[in-house]
Amino acid sequence: MLDFIGLGLYDERSITVEGHEALSECDRAFAEFYTSKLAGATVEELEEYHDVDIEVRDRAGVEQEPEPILDAAEGGEVAFLTAGDTMISTTHVDLRLRAHERGIDTRVFHGVTAQSAASGLTGLQNYRFGKSVTLPFPYAHGGEDVPKSLVEGLEDNRERGLHTLVYLDIKTEREEYMSADVAAGMLAEGWADELAVAVARAGSPEPIVAADRLSTLAEREFGDPLHLLVVPGDLHHLEAEALKAFGGAPAELVAVE
């Protein structure tokens, strides 16, 4: 049996009760934190809280060399742990398919996602989000500061009046996490100086939500990771009120005709 368990957004307590119970019943636990991580907990804190030993795998150890995980799952109960929801990344879907091909039963224990948290914290309605995009570090893609594909994604969503969730690049092996102010500055210069919402440490006891022009957000400090940005599309009047109330948005930027 291979259980895919989402750990939630922030620390060792962000997991669901169902996920915690499933983890406690497993013989071995593997995890990856290259797609995301828990900013509020170390691996050691996770192990102590859940009373398990966790074997952390890098990207190659999941995507190219998954045999140790699958072999263990053929002979016992195995947990595969990730931050957020466990099936957001195609990496994890691929691992589940490999297990299926080998006749290994799988179960999925979902966790809270950054997208649902961003919607809830900002007050922007979840069904009005379009395709998400990722803003990479410039050195990671070797091109312009803002990739053309990201701009196209933003523009496609805006043409349909939809909001865009902008994931910010992380390099866990280098302990490097793009901050919302850096991302806002890149978008203000490489795309357009539009209304955006910075969200920092979603899922923590004290998350930050700030709505303003990208150039203004670029001048702020949002503290420890993880961060993301939301670029709103057309606003419903309730969304506009939420951005003013919860994000401090200037009234002129969220005026609804």
UniProtKB/TrEMBL annotation:
Q: Per the database entry, which stretches of residues form a coiled coil?
A: none
A family per Pfam: TP_methylase
Pathway per its UniProt entry is: Protein modification; peptidyl-diphthamide biosynthesis
EC class name: transferase
Checking InterPro entries in the record gives: 4pyrrol_Mease, 4pyrrol_Methylase_sf, 4pyrrole_Mease_sub1, 4pyrrole_Mease_sub2, Dphthn_synthase
Keywords tagged on the record: Methyltransferase, S-adenosyl-L-methionine, Transferase
Q: Where are the transmembrane segments?
A: none
**Domain Tetrapyrrole methylase residues, every copy:** 4-217
GO terms classed as biological process = methylation; protein histidyl modification to diphthamide
Q: What is its EC number?
A: 2.1.1.98
> What GO molecular function terms would the record report?
diphthine synthase activity
Which reaction is this enzyme known to catalyze? Answer: 2-[(3S)-amino-3-carboxypropyl]-L-histidyl-[translation elongation factor 2] + 3 S-adenosyl-L-methionine = diphthine-[translation elongation factor 2] + 3 S-adenosyl-L-homocysteine + 3 H(+)
Residues recorded as binding S-adenosyl-L-methionine, renumbered to this chain, are L9, D85, I88, T113, A114, L168, A202, H227
Give the record's subunit note.
Homodimer.
Entry similarity comment: Belongs to the diphthine synthase family.
Its function, per the record, reads: S-adenosyl-L-methionine-dependent methyltransferase that catalyzes the trimethylation of the amino group of the modified target histidine residue in translation elongation factor 2 (EF-2), to form an intermediate called diphthine. The three successive methylation reactions represent the second step of diphthamide biosynthesis.
In Swiss-Prot or TrEMBL terms, this protein is called Diphthine synthase
The organism is: Halobium salinum
